[in-house]
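Summary for the steering committee. The consortium agreed at its last meeting that each partner would contribute one worked example illustrating the joint modelling workflow. Our contribution is presented below. We chose a case with several input lines so that the handling of multiple components could be demonstrated. No manual editing was applied between input and output; the record is shown as generated.
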Amino acid sequence: SYELTQPPSVSVSPGQTVSITCSGDELGDKHPCWYQQKPGQSPVLVIYEENKRPSGIPERFSGSNSGNTATLTISGTQAMDEADYYCQAWDSSTGVFGAGTKVTVL
Amino acid sequence: EVQLVQSGAEMKKPGESLRISCKGSGYSFSYSYITWVRQMPGKGLEWMGTIDPNDSSSNYSPSFQGHVTFSADRSISTAFLQWSSLEASDTAMYYCAKHPTTAYPFDYWGQGTLVTVSS
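What follows is the complete predicted structure of the assembly.
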């Protein structure tokens, strides 16, 4: 079955930039996107179609894709960005989530 | 305003049956897919499968095939997730999410339904 690999955790200082990677075979062809989930809340879509942001998502969130890797970047990280981030892709008609990356704002 | 409103928390015993719901509003229910996502306590998101409310055709993850059933009632804009025999390992938060079709992102999510299975 198709798998997506994310680092379990990353840490960042307020105001700095943090990038989270998601790796999978031919991931760029599988419509990767990113979700943010804060404790006790439902996931929220933050990036789709490589670098598109839904309405209401701050500009500091951006994305990129390159071959087998999708990257979510948070620029000027704020304390409110502390959350779990999940990449998600489609392998044919099957949805797949990465295991998630916990972003800690120190 | 687009909303997915899920039914309330459930506490069940092993072997019991259960159906939880996800009611859509603010959009054309028949023309967006509903995906169900499981999140076990302290764990990540798992794609369970997708239903097309227009014709109730479903695609299940192999991990859940045969253990759960998806259904939808277009007349009340509601999708359902059903178990015929719960197990303790079904204890989790279950989310529904909508998306235009397969290979599109999940643009709106329900608030989640907590299912607890314990003897």
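The two ends of chain A are 36 Å apart (CA to CA). The interface with chain B takes residues 1, 30-31, 33, 35, 37, 42-45, 48-49, 54, 84, 86, 88, 90, 93-100 of chain A (CB under 8 Å).
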